[in-house]
Amino acid sequence: MSVHLGNTLHPQEKSASTTRNHPFQKFRQRGILFKHLRSNALRAVLLLILVLTPVTGVAPSEEPIRISGSTTIQPIAAALASVYESRTNEKVVVTGGGSGRGIQDVLEGKSHLGMVSRSLKDEEKNKLQHVTIGYDALVIIVNTANPLETISRDTLVNLYTGKIQSWKEISAWDQPVVLVSKEFGRGTLELFMQYTGLRHPQEREKYPAGPFISEAAFEVGSNLESITLVGGIPNAIGYVSMGTAFALQAQGMPIKVLTLEGVVPSKETVQNGTYPVIRELNLVFTDPSQVQPLIDLFLSPEGQRALINEGFIPAVR
Fold it and tell me: How confident is the model at residue 290, as a pLDDT?
């Protein structure tokens, strides 16, 4: 059975991520992306992001169950979809696109389940049912070449508004700051904005007083894209999922996870609530009868182990 991983970009194909602020458009325009990415391994990861080929196999003819949304939850959903297909002979299609896309797809009837890596807003709760499958944290990452070990909220704000443009202003390292941010509509971006009080540049009409994330920031979609850029650009900084950061760090990605407001990000500090930026990992739906067996799998011991294997905190203990 086939589990199709969406959010992939093929050379002649447009996807949800192909927008005005394509993840690497600014780099292409300036011709500096591969100059910044220092190792062949990082370049290979980048190419995988752009040209991932879906896994294919023999699939039944009936309409598949569709899951879409947060790329933070996507690897867990893909792993459990394979398990579900093998047991039920029902096809499951898993795609990314961000938390906002997951919510919109469910509301429009395009997906049966939406993946949302943040708490739901009141208006969303009025329209959708949801279940929390686990917890994650937002962490701040820099390249291992950066001497910085800890950061405060105020410094983070000054960096992302462009007030601080050189690392020399907060350390002994005389290098320009390269900001990596997220596309509008991403759950990770919304959590970052809630914590810092910053707004995305696209919200200037709605929030004319700002303050705004610098338009000099490079915008990407998934956590993998953010981590690849920070791992390949020595003077870059980004914000990503804790689970994904630790998982890729363990595989050799040259990133450093910073202490935030004096608290080290860890499973323990997330569980005891001392880490400053914690988020829910949710599934949203309108008709539980269509997806209850899948939801049960996410909350089962097997499903919670899959979540733990990706570096997240289980909802069921």
Answer: 87
Q: Which domain holds residue 242?
A: 137-271
Contact 3, 93 (CB under 8 A): yes
- 286 lies in some domain: no
CA 173 to CA 170: how far, in whole Å? 8
pLDDT of residue 41: 53
- 31: in domain: no
Question: In whole angstroms, what is the distance from residue 219 CA to residue 118 CA?
Answer: 19
Residue with tokens 């797809």: 105
Q: Enumerate residue ranges in the chain where pLDDT < 70.
A: 1-61, 317
> pTM (2 decimals)?
0.76
Residue/partner pairs of 104-112 with CB below 8 Å, 24 or more apart: 105/66, 105/68, 105/69, 106/284, 106/285, 106/286, 107/286, 110/66, 110/68, 111/66, 111/67, 111/68, 111/69, 112/65, 112/66, 112/67, 112/285, 112/287, 112/290, 112/291
